[in-house]
Amino acid sequence: MSDLQSSAAADSAPNDEVTRLGPMFSFTSIAFVVLCSAGLALGLCYAFGVPIGGKRMLEGQYYWFFIGTFLAAAFIALPGRKGQTGVPFYDVIAAAIAFGICAWFSNYAWDIVQSGWTNFPAGVVLWVLMLEIARRSGGVPFLLVVFLLGLYPLVADFFPGLLMGIPYSFERMIEAHIFRTEGLMGITTKIVAEIVLGFLVFAGVLIATGAGQFFIDLANAGFGKYRGGAAKVSIVASAFFGSLSGSIFSNIAGTGSITIPTMKKVGYPPHYAAAIEACASTGGVVMPPVMGAIAFVMAITIGVDYATIMVAAILPSLLFYFGLILQVDAYAARKGLVGLKQENLPSARAVMKRGWPFLSVMVFLVWGLLYMRWEYYAPWYASALMIALSFLQRSTMMTPTRLFATLRQVGVLVTQTAAIILPIAFVVSALTITGVTGSMTSGLVALGGDNVYLIIALGVLACFIMGMAGLAIVAYIFLAVTLAPAIIEIGGLNTVAVHFFIVYYAMLSVITPPVGAAAFLAATIAGAKPMQTSFTAMRLGVVIYFVPLFFLFQPALVLQGDLTPLIYVLPSIIVGIMLLAGGLEGYLLGFGMVRPWMRLPLAVAGFAFSFPGLLTTVIGGAASAAMVALIWRDNSKENTAVV
Fold first, then answer.
1. CA-to-CA distance for 13 and 126, rounded, in angstroms?
2. What is the pTM of this model?
3. d(Cα 496, Cα 310) in Å, to the nearest integer?
4. Using N-to-C axis directions, what is the helix angle for 566-585 and 614-642, rounded to 10°?
């Protein structure tokens, strides 16, 4: 890929996600990059303890500067209404006020910690500005949740039962939301400003140096010639790229802009191609080694190192991609879609020769995370290594133009992440200061009547309701402090498995209607109907909907506790997924076409056989054997008739 093409590719993702930065070197784009570069430079200094003005920054000083920088960047980049391309004067004023207030607070960071210094009027202004950014980043549903739950302390004593909490005045509520560690100075800002920042930088560097194209070429060389090769290439490329970038939307924009048109060209309908890309990119969030922001939140919440979370995610993510590949293969078999022609596929040797720096960086990142336990520092080191290796080839060299594109790409990722996570501080603060989290846990236990299955069902419902509003991280944070303790207390279930269960159901929002953001973005690229794409993505991603139930009751699947059950549980799950895919897509691998009336019974039998319980496995196994026998006989008759 030429330097010009690489720069264009690096520039494409921001335009898909932020519509008013304009051309690469427009005034708006330059102002945005300057702001983001200042925030990134300070973040780098803080992460590695580099003194500023002869002194190392206090945590509060850095947090306030980070919030001010990227809040101002959000007012420049995120449009106030759909279709808005220019930056109106009131957004410039809002950006200046946001930066000015935060810079002022940063100057008083020591006093805020030591003597409880606050400023109520300025705090209210910042609260209002943050709510507006919540609206722009997550839409009205997100705004309503942040706003209404954030106001809960004002009326906490009016609620009955488990919802009753300690009431707060408006002034004390703002003080907690803005100035205290329960609010903006706590976990939400730490997630963006410290934990995830390095990985967002790494994702931007990967995109700018052409990693997306490399992973597509690598997948093409390995899978392109097989049946439905274009779809399998999309899955494999998105899994690789998503596992490193940890960003669903940059994954869709970076790889989907190439894979979706290719899938359409070989015969996949637009909505199906978009759904494949949406599912594959979503799976990247829980695909080691990097995963997404929720994984880091989970590590902090549970109190384990990131390596534990990474190892636990291996089997569930592989099962998800296994099911996805089986479904697209079955669709290709049923529709007669063939692989790409060999002459149109890249040479594996040539791809490896060109892309070895990306694989080297991938190995380095895994080594840093697992062996060296660098955790937050690992992506910074990997980014530096990637930039250094980029100079070995002209096509990836970090030229001034590509460097600017990289800073813009990173700025977009950080700004969008900050805009969606920082307002959650108001929800966390409201739940914490009122003491409702503890009563919520005890209330759920009482409501469930010591029935762990009922509590799990309530949790799944809560995840879907909050997740479908586009609030995956909010759902996890809320349920991690309310639902998780109740499940662990009653069921005696594994802590890591319970939190992974919540993470999986919370993250399904991006492909689940009515607000399937990942499916909608992929549909835009494919020119497909968003809702049709979202429902198709649900079907293709069906494995990710039920695998959490499996590892909740069998923690060996997240490599916790005794691993002996994997000997018999894992084979039944693999076979069950094959049967489920055959039922959903109408073609069973190794046996042939599945008649319409057989599809639902086959899918149900496959699910029962895969469920890790003796009774369900036996019943599902018997039903599956009967269904497979019918399908085999049915296809044998057709083959005999043809002969």
1. 29
2. 0.81
3. 11
4. 40
User: CB neighbours (10 Å) of residue 514?
Assistant: 11
pLDDT band at 463 (very low <50, low <70, confident <90, very high): confident
Quote the DSSP letter at residue 593.
E
What dihedral do alpha carbons 228, 232, 233, 239 form, nearest 10°? Answer: 170
Asked which of 15-29, 146-160, 601-615 is least confident by mean pLDDT, the reply is 15-29
Nearest residue to 289 (alpha-carbon basis) of 233, 240, 236: 240
For residue 592, give the H/E element and its range. strand 592-593
What is the rounded average pLDDT of the residues 191-219?
Answer: 86
- The answer to whether residue 442 scores a pLDDT higher than 80 is no
Distance CA 526, CA 544 (A): 23
What Rg value do the Cα atoms of the chain yield, rounded? 25
Greatest Cα pair distance, the chain, in angstroms, is 89
- At residue 472, the pLDDT reads 66
What's the pLDDT at 292? 63
Asked if 46 and 62 touch (Cβ cutoff 8 Å), the reply is yes
Other C-beta atoms closer than 10 Å to the C-beta of 373 total 12
β-strand 592-593 against 587-588: which pairing, if any? antiparallel
Q: Are 456 and 462 in contact (CB under 8 A)?
A: no
DSSP 52: B
Which residues 6+ apart lie within 8 Å of 229 measured at CB? 220, 223, 266, 338, 339, 340
Neighbours of 561 (CB within 10 A): 13
Q: Show Cβ contacts of residue 559 under 8 Å, excluding neighbours closer than 6 positions.
A: 311, 312, 314, 315
Q: First CA to last CA across the chain, in angstroms? A: 50
Q: Are 386 and 357 in contact (CB under 8 A)?
A: yes
Q: Are 566 and 557 in contact (CB under 8 A)?
A: yes
Residue in 17, 535, 518 with CA at minimum distance from that of residue 272: 535
Provide CB contacts within 8 A for 34, sequence distance 6+.
none
Alpha helices in 449-509 (DSSP H): 452-468, 472-491, 495-507
Q: Residue 276 in contact with residue 328, Cβ under 8 Å?
A: yes
DSSP secondary structure string for all residues of 400-461: HHHHHHHHHHHHHHHHHHHHHHTTHHHHHHHHHHTTHHHHHHHHHHHHHTT-HHHHHHHHHH
Q: What is the pLDDT of residue 92?
A: 96
- Matching residue, tokens 């070429």: 217
Q: Which has the closest alpha carbon to 147: 173, 168, 120?
A: 173
Instruction: Name the packing angle between helices 257-266 and 517-526 (round to 10°).
Output: 60
